[in-house]
Every structure is written in structure tokens, then in C-alpha cells.
UniProtKB/TrEMBL annotation:
Family: Belongs to the enoyl-CoA hydratase/isomerase family.
Organism: Amycolatopsis marina
Residue ranges occupied by any MaoC-like domain in the UniProt entry: 15-118
Identification of the protein by name: MaoC like domain-containing protein
Length: 137
């Protein structure tokens, strides 16, 4: 993170490939074994195009964009997002490419700053109203 933070500062982008094996690991860690995250047949039966990533996994990766930039996850005060579209994860070794960008949207009187996060899969936004409040160093 730079020594000073200004409104408009851009965070280094983050590109992550989400694979099916990562979904299985995440399911075990989060205890979220919903079959839409691992069973292609079930996902399609409920109207999805294929297996989809856990929304909270996608959100966590957006948080990583911010904490990597901060260098200290303790400076992350709060973080929120809405799930707007699923990340469809193919059954191959490449997985789904999710691209994250961020920009300092506001400096606040209390010394914190708001970082606006964009998460895209196949050129479309998958997190809405994603922003983090940080305490710059």
C-alpha cells in the first residue's frame, strides 16, 4: 500500500482462476456442500448452466484484492457485497477466470477510506455494491 492514499487511487488488479477442485476444498472449509457447487447434473436440473462457485468464495477473493494491497488484513474495517451473477466453473484444468479491480472511492473524516471493488467473470459483473472500508497506514 502506498504511504498516502488518495481518492481515485487504483489497486493492483487481481486475476484468479477458480477450479472445481478449489470448490471442493472451499466446501469442506465452509461446510457448504450444496450440490450446485459440485454436481453438474443437479446444477443443471435446478436451472443453472453448470456448477457455480460459492458466492462467499468469490466475495473472499475480492477481499483478498484489498488485503493484498493493504499488506495488513487488520486494516480492513468492513467489507460487503451482493451476489449479482454466478461464476460458472467448467470441468477442466483452467477453471473460471474472475478478474478483480479496485479504486479508492472516498476518504472519510474519521481517517478511513472506502474502496470500491469490481469483480468480473466473462466481462460481466458478479458482485454488486462491493466495497471495503479500510484504515490506511
Amino acid at each position: 500500500m502506498p504511504a498516502t492514499v488518495q481518492a481515485g487511487d487504483e489497486l493492483p488488479p487481481l486475476a484468479v482462476r477458480v477450479t472445481r477442485d478449489q470448490l471442493v476444498r472451499y466446501a469442506g472449509a465452509a461446510l457448504d456442500f450444496n450440490p450446485i457447487h459440485w454436481n453438474e447434473r443437479f446444477a443443471k436440473e435446478v436451472g443453472l448452466p453448470d456448477v457455480i462457485a460459492h458466492g462467499m468464495l468469490t466475495m473472499a477473493l475480492g477481499g483478498r484484492l484489498v488485503t493484498d494491497w493493504l499488506g495488513d488484513p487488520g486494516r480492513l474495517v468492513s467489507y460487503g457485497a451482493r451476489f449479482t451473477r454466478p461464476v460458472v466453473v467448467p470441468d477442466d484444468s483452467d477453471g473460471a477466470l474472475v478478474e478483480f479491480t479496485g479504486k479508492v472511492g472516498e476518504l472519510r473524516e474519521d481517517g478511513t477510506a472506502r474502496v470500491d471493488i469490481t469483480a468480473k467473470f466473462e466481462g460481466r459483473t458478479v458482485l454488486g455494491k462491493a466495497n471495503a472500508v479500510i484504515r490506511p497506514g
